[in-house]
Structure formats: C-alpha cells, structure tokens
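Narrative progress, year one. The postdoctoral researcher (J.K.) led the effort to move from monomer predictions toward full complexes, under supervision of the PI. The following entry was the first complex the group processed end to end, covering 616 residues in total.
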Amino acid sequence: MRRVVAVIGGTEIEAEVDAAAERVGALLAKEDAIVVTGGRGGVAEAASRGASLNGGTTVGILPGRERSEANPWVEIAIPTGMGETRNALVVMDADAVIAFPGAYGTLIELGFALHNGLRVVIVGDWPLAVGATVQHATSPEEAVEFALASTSTR
Amino acid sequence: MRRVVAVIGGTEIEAEVDAAAERVGALLAKEDAIVVTGGRGGVAEAASRGASLNGGTTVGILPGRERSEANPWVEIAIPTGMGETRNALVVMDADAVIAFPGAYGTLIELGFALHNGLRVVIVGDWPLAVGATVQHATSPEEAVEFALASTSTR
Amino acid sequence: MRRVVAVIGGTEIEAEVDAAAERVGALLAKEDAIVVTGGRGGVAEAASRGASLNGGTTVGILPGRERSEANPWVEIAIPTGMGETRNALVVMDADAVIAFPGAYGTLIELGFALHNGLRVVIVGDWPLAVGATVQHATSPEEAVEFALASTSTR
Amino acid sequence: MRRVVAVIGGTEIEAEVDAAAERVGALLAKEDAIVVTGGRGGVAEAASRGASLNGGTTVGILPGRERSEANPWVEIAIPTGMGETRNALVVMDADAVIAFPGAYGTLIELGFALHNGLRVVIVGDWPLAVGATVQHATSPEEAVEFALASTSTR
C-alpha cells in the first residue's frame, strides 16, 4: 500500500509558507506518497499543487457537501458535510502528519493526530506549545525526511 | 473534473452479482470515472476489482479507523471511524449511484442518494420499493450507460 | 435508566398527522419515556410538543450547528453540524422507533433503525415498502403500546 | 432557553480534580444550567455527579453506539458511534466551556471550542499553551462565575 501523509496548516498563509508547503507536496509526490489535506486554500492548496504538478495523488477531505469546493489541485475530493468536524478524518490514519502553523482548525487536527499516535512533524514556528512528542523540521526536505523515516510501506 | 460514480450493494453476494459488479467497475474505469464504494467486501470489492484491473481509480469510504480495513482493490482508503454513519459520505456528491441489491446498509445509502438528488440506477431485483425516481438497469452495460448519460464532466 | 423512544416522520405534515404525533409524544411522556427527534418541524415538533406539555423530556438531534435551530418544545438540543448525516444519531440506540410517513430523510432513519435492530413501529400508511420486520400501528395508543411492549427499562 | 455549559477534562484524574469538577457541576446545577460532557469517566463523571446530586440536567455525548456506555450520572445519553470525532459535538454550541487539565482528547475539544468562539474557562494548570483568549479560574466558584458571566439566557 502506498504511504499516506497528511499536510495541514493555515488557510491564509504568507508566500514563504506557500512555497514551503508546495515543496513538501512535491517531495512527497516524488516519494510516491499520497498527500491528504483539508482540500481547500492555504497550506492545503499549496501542498496539493506541489504534489499534483509532480504527478502525485492528492486527496481533499472537504468540510462541505460538494466536490466543487475543493481547490483545483485536489484529484480525489471527499465531501463530508461535517464542517470542521471533518478535521478528525484528515488525520485519522496517515503514516505521518506535516503541520505548518495555522489557527484553531490546525490545532484541532494536531490534537487528533497526537491522540491517534501519528508521527507529527512541525515545520516552522508553531505558536502553540503542544508539549508533545512532535518533531520540528527547519525545511521542507527535513519535514519529508522525518515524515517518511522508518515509515515502512503498509 | 473526472466523473464520480458510487457503486453500492450487499457485502455477501452471489457469484452472478459479483461478476456484474466487477463488470460495472471495469466499464466505469474505461470511461475514466472514479469509482467510490464503502471499501470492504461484496459489491464494493467486486466493483473496485473491476475498476482497478482496468486502470481505474478506486476510493473506499471505510467504517473503521484504519486504511488496512479496505479490500485490496481500493487505491484511496478513507477511514472515518463512523461505522454505518459513513454511508452518508459514500453517496454525498457523486454524479450517479449504481445500486445492487443489498441489506439495510444499502437502503441507507439509497435513502441518502435520493435525498441528495443523485441519479440512481438499480441493477437487478431490488427487494424494497423505494417508490422513487430511480432507473432500473438489466445489465452492467445499461447501468453504466444510465449512470453516465447526460452527466457532463464537472 | 429511562426508556428512550425516537419519533420520526416528515417535516411537512397534515393536521391529522400532527395531532397523532402530538398524541404519541403525550403518551410517551406519561410513560416517562424520553422522546428523541430530529429537533425541527413536522412530526418532530408535534411529538415534542405533546411530550413537553405533559411534563416529558424531549431531545432534539439537530442537523445544524446551533441550538436555536430547535423547535420550542425541545428541552435538550444537540447541535451536530452534520446535516442529514445526523439522522444516524437520532435512531442509534433507542428502545424503539415510532415512524410516521415521511420523505427520504425518514427513509434514511428507518434504514438506520432497522440496521441497528431497533424495534420499529410504523403509524399510518408508509409509502415505501421496507420489507422488514416492522410493526404497523393504527393509532397513537397502539404505536406507544407496541413501542414499549416488553421493553424493559434498561 | 436554559444555559448550557460543557465541562471537559481528563478521564483519569486525581482526587483533587475530581472534587473540583464535582463542585463545578453542583454550582452549574444550582444556576439551572444544563451540564454537557463526553459522558464517561474522570472529569465528565465528576461534573455529572455534582450536577445530578443537585437536581441538575446532565447530557453525555458518547463516543460509542450505546447509551449504557454513559456514567451513571448522565441523564440524557447521546450515542454517536464516532469515537473521539464526537468531541466536536461536545462543544459545538454551549454558552461556555469549563476545561480541567486533560490529554489530547481535551486539547481537541479546546480547539473546537476556541474555533467556535465559545467562552473558555480553564481551571488549574493547563499543560499546553493555547495562546488564546481563555480565562483562567483558580476555583470552581470562579470557573462557574466566569462561565456564566454576561451569558444571557438564550
């Protein structure tokens, strides 16, 4: 089975974060990992763009009820109609989660990821201490390396 | 955007239904439609097998929390941890639904599909009258033709 | 633990059905059973009104995110933000379900109730054959009698 | 409409926290506020006990599919079958949330509460910085005062 990595983070992001998230998506695609996001703007869109432009598979778990809500780089759009409650599904069973700074929506996903025992890699300066066994990466390369390290294909 | 067709039906099925569901999956793959199922056995597995063996994309919306629960023909496994409540997601926004006879789980999906105004095609003898604007197909070919008829790519 | 009975049915109903659903709610309250509904109009409102006016406890499992969405007879409003997917929760674990004729939303709830093995009592002329082990009641009194028959308090 | 306050926190707690959570439940009951919890052990049970013993109404939003999963002080048990995803529902639309220290499950609920703009009061020493507009209370009395302050009955 191909590896799955969730990429999460804010919906309104700066150019620097956009570039880093796109790079993360590109690197994951080159490793043949499936990229799962919340399917909309910001980090989700940047990571999906990076993966899609490099031949990767992108999945978007959407808050609303319609596929058309997904950003254009999402290949597989999964409408849920559950609003932010769908954040639980974004990180339910990935091999790892790469998190860029975000707001409470991202905090929720981080909480679910940690609760589920997923490998969590944070890129950049996370504003909230989660006091947890997370790894901190200083570059997209390091983030993907940490995310896929010793992650056997399952 | 590629068309999406949900294929639903029982989990314990006879060889004839298995063959027909596999054929439906194969035909959908040839039309480049994404095949969405509940991701486990029976009709879901047969349709996914047919699609996968013909180069199609298969999505499985799973009741449990782990990707490993999916049948081996599911390419994109979406764990939900919601049990049968996830049936709502299987048919939330597809271009059409092709339904083989099934039990109450299938009835639930049919109810959601009709509620959402999806095009519904029933193959074979459905035991429950749903008194609805469904189409009845007598073969896999007819089912796929009905499902994709006038369904513009969106 | 007090018994719990879900009362389901259409949101746009005729006066006769409204009166019967209100009577069902009243009878359930007199039996000290908790009345669970979808929390909004039609049968849900009539049953809640009947229960509330007779000192009963009424629970409404709401499709939206705000308690204010509930009809005024709902004492305990549970917002879900899940839309019709919340129908699964309305009938997840009641001692019985009393169903008045409704549309696809009611069909979904009936499917979940039957899937979960709940005791199902249908009042009036149900338009859809569910081919199932349901009981048919011809009056509110009979519906409540069937619903609570041999239902030990648990 | 009666006010609703969610009380959240760990499932394995020390005697001191148990006593404080029970006191919070008691005080909320005396203010006629409905107490909503996750319905199981720890803080949820202590707060429900305190409310129930003082004539209050207690609601438990359960992770599993059966009412019997609730602790004995829950009057209205709402099974969801959604596991930890149900944490979103516990804090979807309360007038306020009172949070005792907990693990990731509590972090998730706090994230949802903050995302939804609820008034959040933290009692005791929260191990995770949420960097947010929360209030910190040093006693059950203060927690309830903060939670209900300027919360008009709606």
